[in-house]
Design brief:
The structure holds two protein chains of two kinds. By secondary structure, chain A is an alpha/beta fold. Chain A has helices at 3-7, 12-25, 39-47, 50-53, 73-83, 106-111, 122-131, 148-161, 175-184, 197-203, 209-215, 226-241, 261-270, 301-304, 320-324, 356-374; strands at residues 32-38, 58-65, 88-92, 116-118, 136-143, 166-172, 192-196, 219-222, 247-249, 271-273, 276-279, 283-286, 290-292. Chain A is 40% helix and 17% strand. A five-stranded parallel β-sheet of chain A has the order 2-1-7-8-9. Chain A has a four-stranded parallel β-sheet with strand order 4-3-5-6, with helices on both faces. Chain A has a two-stranded antiparallel sheet with strand order 10-13. Chain A is globular, with a radius of gyration of 21 Å. The model of chain A is unreliable at 1-5 (pLDDT under 50). In chain B, α3 packs parallel to α4 (144-161) and α6 (242-251) runs antiparallel to α9 (323-331). Chain B is globular. Chain B is an alpha+beta fold. Classes of the chains: A alpha/beta, B alpha+beta.
C-alpha cells in the first residue's frame, strides 16, 4: 500500500471545497441530523476531526454499526465461560478482550489463567488449531456482514481439511434489522443516512432500498476516508435539497451495487438466520443474527460447550442502547467520563475504538467543545 | 464501582442534567489528578502496555510504597550527586527490562535493544552513558547458539555506544517459566554539562522536534512476529542516541528537556509532558515523519503510528529562538537526518485546555491525543 493512495482521500483542500458545497446546500434555520450507521465511520469522523469542518447545523448522529458494542453482556459471559475451560484455547479479536462481562473481561479471565489469544482473523485461529492438535480452539466470531464471510470461509476450510479441534462461537449480526429498528423507534428524527461501506461490499446497496421507499430517507453508502464521509454528507444534502430519497453509492470504487455474490454464497452455505437475537441496549431484534447451520454442528461452540446462556441485564446506569440508537450523545449518558471511562468501561461503547463513547472520549471531546463555542446549537 | 465524581460545582442541584461543558470539565479535572487507587485485582497485559493502566500501577502501587524525591518525577533516569554533600559530579542512573518477542527481528535483537534502551534513557537526562549491568533470565532448553548471538550483539552495541558492561547476573528457570530469554540492564552515566533538563523549564511557545520517522521499531517487531502475514520491508530503528544528544546539546543551550518515545510512542510522551507541565500541546499531523511502510501497515492493522514504539528516536522540547540551531544540529547527525518540528507548546486558551494534547489533522480538523487506556499489544521491547 502506498501512502499516496491514502493521502488522496485526506486532502484538506478538497475537503474545503466539499464543505463550501455543503454550506451552500443547507437551508437557513434548518437543522440536519444525518446518521452514520457504521462504527468505522464514527471512528474516521473523530480521528480526522471531520465534525470540525461541518457547518454547525449539520449534525452527525452515531449509529448502531459497531460490532463490539452490540454484543450483550450475557453473550460475553458465555464467551468467558468457554474461554475458562481448561481444554480450550480461546481466540478473539483484540477489541473484545476488554469488554466487561458480569465478572470482568476476557483480559481478566486471561490473567486468572485462561488461555486466550488475540488474533487478527478467523484464519489465524484455524492456524492455532492446526498447531495445537491436542487442544480445542474456539474463535469468538463477531461482526456484521463485513466479517461474516471470512468466518464462513474459515468454517468451510476447517471442514475441507477435517480439522475437528476448531469451533466457532457465532455472534454475527446483520445491519438491516438494526436500521429498521431505529427507523421504527419514535424517539429520533433523522434526515438521512451515511450507509455502511464495508457491509455493502458484501450485501450490495439494494437491502437499503426500504429506507428510501418506506421511510423516505436518503441513504448514501460511503467509504471510510474522511473525504468519503464529507462526500456522503454532500450527497445526502443534495438529495434533501432536491426532494429525493434514494440509495446512492459514493463508495463505487469498492462497492458494487449487487455486492459480492461469492461471499453471500459462503454465508448462506454455512449459516442461517436466528429467529431472534439480543443486541446490547436495543433488546431482542427478530431475524437479526446468524447461527451455524446444523450440518456444521461439529464446529459450533454453542453445541459443543455448555454455556450459561443467561440473559444479563445491562448495568442500570449504562445507556449504551440510547447511544447506539443515536437518541443521546455519549456525554449525555449518566456515567460517561465518571464511572465509565476507557480505563474502566461499564458499557461496550466505551471499549471499542468504533464505539461512539470511546471515539468521543479519546478523540472528539475537545472538538465538540470548540464547535459549540463557535455557534451554539439552538435547544 | 467507584462513586461518581463530584461535579466541578458542588452547589449544583443534584438532578439537573449535566451540560456537555460540565462533563468535559469534570473529565479534565479527573485526568489531571494524581492516581491514588488501583481498582484491578490482578495484573493484566494492560498494565504493561505503557498507557493509563501502567501509570496507575506505577503511581498507586510502586510510588506509594517507594516514594522519595528522586523517584517522584518518574522520569526514565534519576540524576543525583555522587557525593552526599552535593559537591561531587552528577550521575544519571536508569534501568529497563527487555521481553521482546521474537528475540531477533529486522534491524536488531534483544541484546542490542537492551544496551541501546538503557543508554538512551541515560542520554535523555543529558548524561554521557558509562557503565551498564546486564541480568539474564534464561529458560531451560534455550539454545546456547542464540545466547551467543545475543551476547555478541550486546558487545557490539556497547562498543558503538561507548559503554562497558561491568557487572551482570545469570538465572535459569524451568522450561515454560519464561519465554526463552529476558534481559535487564541498568546503567550509570555522568553529566558533564551544567544543565538541568527538566519539564519544569518548558514554556508556552516551545517547539517539539522529533529526530526522525516514528513507529519503525514497534511496527518492525509486530511484523516480524509473523502473526499478521504482512510482507513489509521495515527495520527497527534501534540505535544509541548519546552521540546525537551530545551534538544537539553542543549546538544550543535552548533545549528544555529530552525524551525517548519508546513504548507508547510519541503520543504517550507528549501526553505525559502536557500533564506534567499542565500546558497544552498542539501536534501538526502533516509534519509528522512516518515511513510509507509504517503508514501502510498502520492502516491495515487499525493502529496509529503516534502510539507505536521507537528505539532510536528522541523528542526535544526547544525554546523557540533556538529551534533552527537545534534542528540543524540534529540533521547534521546521521541519526537525526529526518528531524522535524512536529508540535508546539501552546498558551492555555479555550481552544487549548491545560494539560491536553490536540492534534491538528492534515484534513483540517482536530482531535485529542491521550494516553492509551491499555490495549493488550504484543511485547515489542
Amino acid at each position: 500500500m502506498s501512502m499516496r493512495f491514502v493521502d488522496e482521500y485526506r486532502s484538506g483542500d478538497v475537503a474545503k471545497r466539499l464543505v463550501a458545497g455543503i454550506e451552500e446546500l443547507t437551508e437557513p434555520g434548518r437543522h440536519y441530523k444525518i446518521m452514520e450507521v457504521c462504527g468505522g465511520h464514527t471512528h474516521a469522523i473523530y480521528k480526522h476531526g471531520v465534525e470540525d469542518l461541518l457547518p454547525p447545523q449539520v449534525e452527525l448522529v452515531h449509529g448502531p454499526g459497531c460490532p463490539v458494542c452490540v454484543i450483550p453482556m450475557g453473550r460475553q459471559d458465555d464467551a468467558i465461560a468457554i474461554a475458562e475451560r481448561p481444554d480450550v484455547i480461546f481466540t478473539t479479536f483484540g477489541d473484545m478482550m476488554r469488554v466487561p462481562g458480569s465478572h470482568g473481561s476476557l483480559l481478566d479471565a486471561k490473567s486468572r489463567g485462561a488461555d486466550i489469544r488475540m488474533v487478527y482473523s478467523p484464519l489465524d485461529a484455524l492456524k492455532v488449531a492446526r498447531d495445537n492438535p491436542d487442544r480445542n480452539v474456539v474463535f469468538f466470531a463477531i461482526g456484521f456482514e463485513t466479517t461474516t464471510p471470512s468466518t464462513a470461509i474459515t468454517l468451510l476450510r476447517a471442514r475441507a481439511e477435517g480439522i475437528r479441534n476448531f469451533s466457532l462461537f457465532a455472534n454475527h449480526v446483520t445491519i438491516v434489522p438494526a436500521i429498521r429498528a431505529i427507523l421504527d423507534s419514535p424517539d429520533l428524527r433523522l434526515d438521512g443516512f451515511i450507509g455502511p461501506g464495508h457491509v455493502s461490499t458484501v450485501i450490495g446497496i439494494r437491502p437499503f432500498r426500504f429506507v428510501a421507499r418506506d421511510f423516505e430517507r436518503p441513504v448514501v453508502v460511503s467509504g471510510f476516508e474522511p473525504l468519503d464521509v464529507l462526500a456522503g454528507v454532500h450527497m445526502v444534502l443534495t438529495q434533501l435539497r432536491e426532494g429525493r430519497a434514494e440509495v446512492e453509492n459514493q463508495y463505487s470504487r469498492v462497492v458494487r451495487d449487487e455486492g459480492n455474490p461469492v461471499a453471500m454464497r459462503a454465508i448462506a452455505e454455512t449459516m442461517e438466520l436466528r429467529t431472534t437475537f439480543e443486541w446490547r441496549g436495543l433488546g431482542f431484534i427478530s431475524q437479526s443474527a446468524l447461527k451455524l447451520r446444523e450440518e456444521f454442528a461439529d464446529w459450533d461452540a454453542e453445541v459443543l460447550y455448555e454455556v450459561p446462556g443467561v440473559r444479563v441485564a445491562d448495568p442500570k446506569a449504562c445507556q449504551c442502547g440510547e447511544v447506539l440508537k443515536g437518541v443521546i450523545k455519549p456525554w449525555e449518558c449518566k456515567v460517561f467520563g465518571t464511572a465509565c471511562t476507557p480505563e474502566h468501561p461499564i458499557g461496550t461503547c466505551m471499549v471499542s475504538s468504533e464505539g461512539a463513547c470511546a471515539a468521543y472520549y479519546n478523540y472528539g471531546r475537545h472538538a465538540g467543545r470548540r464547535r459549540r463555542e463557535e455557534a451554539p446549537v439552538p435547544a | 464501582m467507584s462513586a461518581p465524581d463530584a461535579s466541578p460545582d458542588p452547589d449544583r442541584p443534584p438532578k439537573r442534567p449535566r451540560t456537555e461543558e460540565e462533563v468535559l470539565d469534570a473529565i479534565e479535572v479527573r485526568r489531571r489528578r494524581p492516581v491514588r487507587k488501583l481498582l484491578d485485582e490482578r495484573i493484566t497485559l494492560s498494565h504493561g502496555a505503557g498507557g493509563k493502566a501502567t501509570h496507575t500501577l506505577v503511581e498507586a502501587l510502586f510510588l506509594a510504597e517507594l516514594r522519595n524525591p528522586l523517584l517522584e518525577p518518574l522520569t526514565d533516569s534519576s540524576v543525583f550527586s555522587a557525593t552526599e554533600n552535593g559537591q561531587g559530579p552528577r550521575l544519571a542512573f536508569s534501568t529497563d527490562s527487555y521481553v521482546v518477542r521474537p528475540l531477533f527481528f529486522p534491524g536488531g535483537d534483544i541484546g542490542e535493544l537492551a544496551v541501546n534502551g538503557t543508554v538512551n534513557d541515560l542520554a535523555m537526562s543529558g548524561a554521557r552513558p558509562l557503565y551498564l549491568s546486564a541480568g539474564f533470565i534464561i529458560e531451560e532448553g534455550f539454545p546456547i547458539v542464540d545466547l551467543q548471538r545475543v551476547a555478541a550483539s550486546m558487545g557490539a552495541a556497547a562498543r558503538t555506544a561507548g559503554v562497558s558492561v561491568v557487572t551482570g547476573d545469570t538465572k535459569v528457570v524451568e522450561r515454560g517459566k519464561a519465554d526463552g530469554l529476558y534481559v535487564n540492564t541498568a546503567g550509570i552515566g555522568i553529566l558533564e554539562r551544567n544543565l538541568d533538563l527538566s519539564t519544569a523549564a518548558v514554556r508556552a511557545g516551545d517547539q517539539v522536534i522529533v529526530s526522525g520517522t516514528i513507529g519503525d521499531h514497534g511496527m518492525a517487531v509486530m511484523i516480524a512476529r509473523g502473526d499478521l502475514e504482512l510482507e513489509v520491508e521495515l527495520e527497527s530503528d534501534s540505535a544509541p542516541l548519546a552521540g546525537l544528544t551530545a551534538t544537539l546539546l553542543d549546538a544550543t543551550d535552548g533545549v528544555r528537556c529530552l525524551r525517548d518515545p519508546t513504548r507508547g510512542g510519541l503520543a504517550t510522551v507528549l501526553a505525559e509532558l502536557a500533564l506534567t507541565t499542565e500546558l497544552p500541546i498542539a501536534i501538526d499531523e502533516a509534519a509528522l515523519p512516518v515511513a510509507p511502510a509504517v503508514t501502510g501497515a498502520c492502516e491495515i492493522l487499525g493502529l496509529d503510528a503516534l502510539y507505536v514504539a521507537n528505539e532510536g528516536k528522541l523528542v526535544a522540547i526547544v525554546a523557540p529562538e533556538c529551534t533552527e540551531a537545534a534542528l540543524a544540529a540534529l540533521r547534521s547527525h546521521p541519526l537525526g537526518a529526518e528531524a522535524a518540528i512536529v508540535a508546539e507548546v501552546r498558551e492555555i486558551s479555550p481552544d487549548h485546555p491545560p494539560g491536553l494534547v490536540i492534534l491538528e489533522t492534515a484534513f483540517g480538523g482536530s482531535r485529542v491525543v491521550d494516553m492509551l487506556a491499555g490495549d493488550p499489544l504484543p511485547r515489542i521491547c
